[in-house]
Amino acid sequence: MKISFPSNFKWGVATAAFQIEGAWNEDGKGESIWDRFCHTPGHIERSDTGDIACDHYHRYPEDIKLMQSMNIPNYRFSVSWPRIYPNGKGAVNQNGLDFYNKLVDTLLKAGIEPWITLYHWDLPQALHDEGSWPERKITDYFTTYAETMAKALGDRVKNWMTFNEPWVVSFMGYHEGVFAPGETSEKRALQTAYHLMLAHGKAYSAIKSIHSDARIGFTHNYLHYHNLGRDEKSAQLINYKQHESNGIFLEPVSLGNYPEIVLEQNANAPTVHPDDLKVMNQYDFIGIQYYFDVLVANGEWSFDKPFPIYKRTEMGWPVTPVGFYESIMSFATEYQVKDIIVTENGSAWPDTLSPEGNVFDDDRQHYLIDHLYQLRRAMDDGAPVSGYFAWAFMDNFEWKHGYRPRFGLVYVDYGSQKRHIKESGHLFSKIIQEKGFECIV
Ligand code: GCO
């Protein structure tokens, strides 16, 4: 039987500036909080940094050629804010704009549609020093940056994402302290979350006023909590966490509300202004990013506790494709998102490059097929999903884990910077061409 997708379904691959570009201090680029975080010992496995990464800043023409050879019609990438504004605000760095202009033109020439994320975590260090996301004034700096990008590229780029995973930015960066800038304050995390969504709304209006035909959204890593212990304590925790992890981002943007339960139960919750909610409540699509279910037992949640029944990726994450179906359904029903795009989904495995230059990544191929199957099921059940972007186009810098986990459809040999299409990359290319895949039942 064939699992088919509509002919206008948008297939693509995704990356992010800090994870692939390198050239961390070239052509006038300013320092970002991730540069600082990596250069401070003790944060990243093996002391890896983003200084060179995949050297995409210099190798983008070859990378785009490779994408074209794989028949990839859409490419989601992010712009590095400190490449455009080395200090986050003030004078624009023309070299930075030139780079993204060339990137966009090369993509379009190759027949690939660009999708831009404005913020994939690399905040200019100067703005962090000035108060960072917990201070409201940063929402204006972000809006100016969004306007600059819309003016520079909006004649050719129609698809914009303001923020990538505001949950990760807020909670991993300001509460758990494991991502840049490495803070550990719940209050500052919740304030950050609020300002990110406010900045989303302000940037939405700013971009639309320059290009009314732009399509703008943000992307959210939906946290799907699975009550593995089937116990009451876990059920209660999930009831709250669902709102704190998903509601505070999706409700303001999609429904114009802020979840009451967070305001009632958390003394660190921000003060919500009704006028802000009106600003936040604007989008054309919302990206869902899904990797795994968060497992809960005995009232405790965990990203990587060894619950034995699941197969685990190189990240230690359980493989839970049915959770993908449920997450998409929740986007569609609970949050009533009118246009959903899967902006990231993928997996890391311990790949090996054969002497002939092949990577036989069976696990990644199974993961891809299993998740596409569940996506199709959600569409059959009425979820308005219009696209799927695989994470990632190529292996890259995986944040605190450095270059160890490999998420790419393309293998990167970091020593020589040579790229090799993995078997999963060939499979994805075939799925795109055939608008689906054969499935034996
Ligand atoms: C995220 C980011 C990506 C990650 C990917 C794998 O979802 O965390 O958008 O930058 O690399 O998710 O962890």
Write the layout of secondary structure elements.
Elements: E1 2-4, E2 10-14, H1 17-20, H2 33-39, H3 56-69, E3 74-78, H4 81-84, H5 94-109, E4 113-119, H6 125-129, H7 138-153, E5 159-164, H8 166-174, H9 186-210, E6 215-221, E7 225-227, H10 232-255, H11 260-265, H12 274-280, E8 285-289, E9 294-297, E10 300-302, H13 321-333, E11 340-344, H14 362-380, E12 385-391, E13 410-413, E14 418-421, H15 423-434, E15 436-438
Parallel strand pairs: 2-3, 2-12, 3-4, 4-5, 5-6, 6-8, 7-9, 8-11, 11-12
Antiparallel strand pairs: 1-15, 9-10, 13-14
Helix pairs in contact: 3-5, 7-9, 8-9, 9-10, 9-12, 13-14, 14-15
Bound molecules: D-gluconic acid.
Structural class designation: alpha/beta
Major sheet size, sense and barrel closure: 8 strands, parallel, barrel
Which cofactors or ions or other ligands sit in this model? D-gluconic acid
CATH architecture: Alpha-Beta Barrel
Distance between the termini: 7 Å
Number of helices: 15
Radius of gyration from the alpha-carbon trace, in angstroms:
20 Å
CATH top level label: Alpha Beta
Count of structural domains:
1
Structure overview:
There is one protein chain. The chain is α/β, with parallel strands linked by helices and 441 residues long. It has 15 helices and 15 strands. The chain is globular, with a radius of gyration of 20 Å. The longest helix is centred in the middle third of the chain and has 25 residues, at 186-210. Helix 7 (138-153) packs parallel to helix 9 and helix 9 (186-210) crosses helix 12 (274-280). The chain has a single domain, classed as TIM Barrel (Alpha-Beta Barrel). The strands form four sheets. An eight-stranded parallel β-barrel has the order 2-3-4-5-6-8-11-12, surrounded by six helices. A three-stranded mixed β-sheet has the order 7-9-10, covered by helices on one side. Strands 1-15 form a two-stranded antiparallel ribbon. 41% of the residues lie in helices and 16% in strands. Bound molecules: D-gluconic acid. The site of D-gluconic acid has 11 residues, from loops.
